[in-house]
Specification:
Elements (H helix, E strand, L loop, with lengths): L6 H19 L2 E2 L4 E7 L7 H16 L4 E6 L7 H10 L4 E5 H4 L18 H8 L2 H7 L7 E7 L4 E5 L14 E4 L3 H9 L3 E4 L5 H6 L5 E4 L1 H6 L8 E8 L3 E6 H6 L2 H35 L3 E3 L4 H6 L1 H5 L5 H11 L2
Parallel strand pairs: 2-3, 2-4, 7-8, 10-12
Antiparallel strand pairs: 1-2, 4-11, 5-11, 6-9, 6-10
Amino acid sequence: MADKCSKPAYRRLIVSALLAVAAFLGGCDEKNDVVVLKLAHSVDVSHPVHKAMVFMGQRLEEISDGKITLEIFPNEQLGSERETIEQVQLGIIDITKTSTAPLESFIPKMGVFSIPYVFRGYDHFWNVLEGPIGDEVKQGGTAVKLYGLCFYDSGSRSFYTTSNPINSPADLKGLKVRVQQSNTAIEMVKALGGSPTPISYGELYTSLQQGVVDGAENNPPSFETSRHYEVCKYYSLDEHTMVPDIIIINSDFWDGLTDKQRQIIQEAADESSIYQRKLWKEKTQESLRIVKAAGVEIIHPDKTPFIKAVKDMHESYKGTEVGELLARIKEAK
């Protein structure tokens, strides 16, 4: 007997199949010569990342005089981050917004962003992303049919738990912590004493509720908009990583566009990145107020023991491609 799909999985399968047919028939409306870009992502429509992508769609239509439009599928409608990355590779959809963490399975250099305490602060973070290193990383996936258009702010990731506050790495010992599907994120939680458990973002709320995991780690807007604060009442702002989001497009599709079309899409993406940063800053403060009002205890732990705990992890990258990139990031101003 064949295995039965869950309703959400079956629905995603049907939608993906329909999109594959649409992709086969072509991304242009021949009558009007309109390019319709299909973009999927994992977050809720209230999230600043989704709002920035809506803005990107508006700018695409404005700049192109309606010749390029964007159709957005939010909230894991078409699958998890990894699944939508694969769909972009296959040309089933054109674009996805993903964290750089799951991308390291496809583009190893992306793993550098999941190494804890790489960036000295917000200015250092954006100077790197908007400089030669950022360009190199964005363009480093063409061999696997992935091309980066722009980075989005994803703030700092910190631990939140269901049962006890995290004041030091010792408090993570024995805790099952949900991590992204990233080997680097797995090694980070191990280095800090926790038990890493990769789980799809869409399944995390139930996993926290049912005790499959004891906690997770994410930025304030995601902690709030996912409503994970309803289950997790301790949020420890250790700010261990600054893992950017990225907008990626199928590189074959990108290469097949005209110079003018590429220019328009890149311009709209860049504008959406600037807009998203503004939204992100505002939403971060709002989210912290919301979760605190809901009874979440906000902890500001001393970061020194966390930084010390991952020192060997930093050293382990010496002599590797990621290690070379890590050294360049540390040297950047």
